[in-house]
Structures are given as C-alpha cells and as structure tokens.
Design brief:
The chain is mostly helical. The chain folds into 2 domains: 3-226, no CATH class; 233-287, no CATH class. It contains 16 helices and no strands.
Length: 291
C-alpha cells in the first residue's frame, strides 16, 4: 500500500497497523534528522513524535499524500530546529551557527554534532525539486529508479537533480565558511547508504502510534480530511440526494423497493383516488426524498 492509502486507513478506520507501517517506513529518516539537529535524547524523541502528530493534524492539507517522505523531512527539520532553539534558551547557551562553522578546521570531523544542523539547514533551503530528490535518495535510502517513480520523473532527470543538489550544497556551505575538506566529508556523510539503515526503536514506534490514536480521538481530523477529499462536502451530499430523487421519480424499481415504495404504473396512477394520492405523498415525505 502506498502512503496515501495507509494514511486514509488510519484516519478513517483508525487502523493502528496502517499508522505503524507509516512510522516504520519513514521513521528512520525522521529520527536521523532529529538526532542530527538535537543533542538531548528526550528532545529527539519528542521531536520525532511531534513530526508524526503533525502529519495526522495536517493530513488534509498535504498535496502529495502518496509520497510523504519530503513532507515529513520538512516537518522534522522545522520541529527539531525549534526544539534546538528552545533548548538553547533553556540552558542559557546561545550557539550561533556562523561561529561554529568559522572555527572549523580542515581536519574537523563532520560527524561532530555541530556541523549536522548546518547541513540540514542548507538542505531545507534547496529548491523543492532538488530537496525532494536528496531526501528520497540520501535520507530515505530509495534507489534512483524507485525515487524517480515516486517523483514521477525520468531517471536521468532525477540523477541531474541529485548532482545539482550536491553542487548547490557545496557552494552554500562554502559561503557559510565551512572548509573544503569538511564539505566533502559532510556530503559523504549525507550520501552514506549506511546512514539510513538504523531502525526506529520499537518502544518509540509504539508510543508514537498510541499518541497518534489519542490525537485522532480528540480532534475533528476525520471530518476535515473527508471534506478536503471532497467526500464530506455539502454539495456532494446535495448531489447524492438529487440523484436519488431522480431515480425515485423515474420509477427505478430496485431503488423504490429498497426504500419500501411500491411501483406505480402510469395506468394505475390515473385511477388513484385523492385519498390514496395524499397517502402516497405523506409516505414520500417520510422517506426524505425531497432535498
């Protein structure tokens, strides 16, 4: 099942397993971003869960529900960034990114935590077509062919976007004062296939799914989701009622029988007494066929 089908199953039918599949499918990428940006493990878990809770709340406004990875990356980055700022204020430690990267040396280890937020900050600033390619291939670990299918573009186009994205990252990191060797190592860290292999701990998956169920119960999310999908809009209900009324007026035998109405032929209708006619009108009123 694709992401859109899983999300619909969870929102409409409260299918717990469907949401768990989504969390396990995209969780490694979301967790990686949260860990790259945040120091405290508790803050990481909170940002991870907040990302998926926002997915539930904002489901109706997501345009491409069939491929949620790029959207979740954006949310994970923004959520983690806000948590990082709050943590800095909480500990009265003002860490300026420009200061951190200015002190970098050619021998600096890109796995040092302070460099990772800089990298994700620049990924976040990339044009969406380049950012989505990098998120799917480098952060979610999709093969180029699979990522191209999700983005509905030729494989050659996706490879070109990846190349342009890497080059733009190098250029922007250079302008921020990051050394050449450090940039090369950061890009290598980003494109390392093993970097997305870590699974989300079962406990974190379970707590996220349970929190999602609680959010689903306490907010009118399903109604909003159906309305945005067109299924719950008043005009759809009016069209349905109008279509039903036309079927009844046309004498559709199956429909009339389903509503408990007898079929009346034109010849028989001519012999209906006023009392019978009034009785039938009353019966029709009770059936609620009028709009």
């Amino acid at each position: 099942m694709n992401d859109a089908e899983l999300l619909s199953d969870f929102l409409i039918h409260q299918d717990e397993q469907a949401f768990e599949v989504l969390v396990r499918r995209h969780g490694p990428m979301v967790l990686k971003v949260c860990r790259d940006v945040l120091d405290d493990s508790h803050d990481v878990d909170d940002a991870f869960q907040a990302t998926f809770m926002l997915l539930i709340r904002k489901a109706s406004s997501i345009r491409d529900r069939a491929s949620l990875g790029p959207w979740l990356y954006e949310v994970a980055w923004k959520t983690s960034s806000r948590a990082r700022s709050q943590a800095a204020r909480r500990h009265a430690v003002q860490k300026q990114v420009s200061t951190m990267v200015a002190s970098a040396t050619p021998e600096a280890d890109p796995t040092r935590h302070e460099f990772k937020p800089v990298l994700h900050d620049e990924i976040h600033r990339l044009p969406s077509r380049l950012r989505d390619a990098i998120v799917l291939c480098y952060l979610e670990g999709f093969a180029v062919e699979a990522a191209a299918k999700r983005l509905d573009c030729p494989v050659g186009t996706l490879k070109s976007r990846l190349s342009k994205g890497r080059e733009m990252l190098r250029s922007r990191l250079t302008r921020r004062g990051v050394g050449v060797t450090t940039i090369l190592l950061l890009v290598a860290y980003l494109t390392d296939e093993q970097a997305v292999a870590e699974e989300v701990p079962d406990g974190l998956v379970e707590s996220t799914v349970q929190s999602g169920l609680e959010v689903l119960k306490t907010r009118p999310i399903v109604t909003r989701y159906l309305d945005r999908s067109g299924l719950g809009r008043p005009w759809v209900r009016r069209m349905t009622s109008a279509a039903l009324a036309l079927l009844l007026l046309a004498g559709s035998v199956p429909v009339r029988k389903w509503f408990g109405l007898s079929s009346v032929t034109p010849a028989a209708a001519a012999t209906v007494t006023p009392t019978d006619s009034a009785s039938r009108e009353t019966s029709s009123d009770h059936c609620g066929v009028s709009d």
